[in-house]
Request: fold
Amino acid sequence: MTADAAGRASVKRVWAVAAASIMILAGLSACGGDSGKPTLNWYINPDGQVTLNQLAKDCSTDEYTIKIQLLPASATDQRTQLARRLAAKDSSTDLMSLDPVFVPEFANAKWLAPFTGDLKGKVLDDDVLDGAAKTVTWEDKVVAAPQWANTQVLWYRKSLAEAAGLDTSKPVTWDQIIKAAADNDGTVGVQANKYEAYVVWINALIQGAGGNILDPSTVEDGRDAKVTINSEAGKRAAGVIRELARSSAKQPDFTTSNEGTSLGRMYPAKGAGEFMTNWTFVYKNYEGLIGKPGGPADKEAFSDLGWLRYPETVAGEASKPPIGGIDIGVGAYSKHLDFAQQAAACVTSPKAQTALAVNEGLMPSRQSVYDSEELKKAYPPDLLQLFSTSISEGGPRPKSAFYSQISSAVQSVWHSPSSVSDRTPKKSASFLKDVLSGKALL
Reply:
């Protein structure tokens, strides 16, 4: 969840893992009987397993078979497993589902085979949303193919916003939703455990105030990048976290919260519900839980679910919604590079992206898919527009080959969120500089 891999977990899918695993095993046995035909190993994260397994079958050809290999649930563990394989020049690592923040690291290490020629234009063209397109390039090369794009929006109970007198026809701020929830028996759900999704929140707050963790113009300088987290924007971000930490609107598990913990609080047995920043999977999650524990009691209750653009850090300054998703990389040491890149183009095609969105709630990286009839039947039009706009106008995390160290350094200082203060950005900047320069260890 990736920040995002973990970030896309849902109550519904947690219970579906066992069933999905059985289906995957059945599917693999069905396509494993061909002899003499190359097998392409595709390492995936746990999100959307059923549809990804079907894509592996659909994109297998008379020339090669695609076989699914399941990575751990944690984005950090996914990165570690793949990095170890690629550092050892593993020739059996053909396709990889990568959290966008790990693409620069893998590309910088020459672990990804760049797309060239017709395939380059096929996986990255003008149809790909800007936020997603930026995640797959490194040193002017297309090093991965955008498969699906993720972003966060503000999910909320319409009845709670109405009771608070909140005008949802225009952008709302963090200050507004924290006060609205606190004054009306509601809560605010975020991801504040010590993991990647907490950095996603911090980064979005800082960018929403006009700043950045690192100077974007120097971020590709690696260890020499300019650290800019100690800024007025950093202090504003710290102020939002501190405000929620001190508010009655914070949820009981605030310091250990993740993408799944606040899902059940949208439709509590008692209480007004919540405002919650979370990823695109939320709509399909609640739609699938109508009449079930943790979900809306009925369709009328489901219709009380609302959505708005990610909250503003500073009133009047456009928010920068988080950018996530999955990019498909091809291992540089694969024995079957040409086949693997053809397969990557297939599993990221508009047809593939449509299936992931409709079946799994994993949203497209291509505008044409948002405009398709299939998605218009599966989602409300204004929600589709919100998703695509948020991805196009969202804010990426630092695009650095050293992102893992950057994220860990930020987590080390900013957690626990209950201890965040005006001094946190300065302390964070000092530690991050030392980590990048090798003067401090994580």
